[in-house]
Amino acid sequence: xVQHRVRARRQYGTGGVWYDSARDRWVGxxxxxxxxxxxxxxxxVTAKTEAECKRRLRDKQRKIDREGLPSxxxxxxxxxxxxVDVWLPQRERVVRPKTFAxxxxxxxxxxxxxxxxxxxxxxxxADRRAVMTAMEDGGLELSSLTRCHMLIGKMLxxxxxxxxSVPQRVREVPSPGMNAPDRDALAFDDALAILAVASKRxxxxxxxxxxxxxxxxxxxxxxxxxxVNFEADEITLAWQLQAxxxxxxxxxxxxxxxxxxxxxxxxxxxxxxVRPKTRSGWRxxxxxxxxxxxxxxWREIAPESPYGLVWPQADGRxxxxxxxxxxxxxxxxxxxVAVTExxxxxxxxxVIGRRPDLYEARxxxxxxxxxxxxxxxxxxxxxxxxxxxxxxxxxxxxxxRKRRALESVAETLGLTT
Length: 417
Known about the structure:
This protein is of the alpha+beta class. The protein has 3 domains: 16-76, no CATH class; 79-171, DNA polymerase, domain 1 (Orthogonal Bundle), CATH 1.10.150; 188-214 and 285-412, no CATH class. 42% of the residues lie in helices and 15% in strands. The protein is built from 14 helices and 13 strands. The protein has helices spanning 50-67, 80-92, 97-115, 125-137, 142-161, 168-171, 188-198, 204-213, 217-221, 289-301, 321-334, 359-371, 376-383, 399-412, and strands at residues 16-20, 25-34, 40-47, 228-229, 234-237, 240-243, 246-248, 251-256, 264-268, 271-274, 283-286, 339-342, 351-354. The strands form 5 sheets. It has a 3-stranded antiparallel sheet with strand order 1-2-3. Helix 3 crosses helix 4 and helix 8 packs antiparallel against helix 10 (289-301). Mean pLDDT is 82; it is low at 1-14 and 387-397.
């Protein structure tokens, strides 16, 4: 009697190869979309030997990769929900963890409940507008509607690439628009008041780095000492500190959700050092004399960090986002700085005051650089983010121009040695 080794149970939905003793044949199968009833559709191959079965299965998979899913009447009956079930796991492998979490939430809360029962082939522009209406009725801002609109567009474009039929007019529905950003630069007098308070703190360099060099909060919290070059008077901003989500919510044993090509180094619990979203965000900025002096003094008294971080918590562990904001708010409160904006509530005062957002220090850096008549290419090179200003593209600039620009702003702010 021929003995066949026992195989571990295959993970549901992944396909595979197994031996069918009733037919004395090896059988292999792969997923190929959905049937007319919405169940998973599978393509099968058989062979006398396991090796031959695997070869045939690989050939089928290559053909699907090259030509797309087999066309059939059932493909036109696939619903949005059925496609989401296939598409979302693919999405998880290629986008950043925070992006995936936002996408998954938007799909679960708005897209699937509103149009999940609709067939891809019979979608209409009204269906896309229905999702926007549901979100708007739910109190979401225009920026959230715009992100959802882009998500639907990407999902439908990928469906077409996989061989499904989606009306072109549905994919060309215009965006609902984009509201004006709610973050703005601080007034010059407010910036000076904040610097006056921050300069009295031992970690003054942390807050000046945000306002002078436009260092992002996550970049500051993830800056290691080995990226501070006192010989060249330069800081390399190549990492950001972020918390990565678990594969299974609230289950550390499940591991972290890390897409392909995403560079991350675990430092403490869920906190990781990760690379910026784009290569342009990985940059080198000069240190003006004030920053060099302040960082050297801070290095002598800074909490010892097992991860080599420049601005950790008092116990040396990475500073969390909430702690960073709390420290910033303590500074702005002590400086008596509040941002005034129109009051959205009728019957009250025309304007209200709010605490400045920490990211507004970065906007302030952009405004100060422009006020100092620094060209857009140099500003873009310093900030590493083209959307802060109306620059046309990421352009190259030399260190001399960047250093001269930062020294000019430092002098304006009274940051002299």
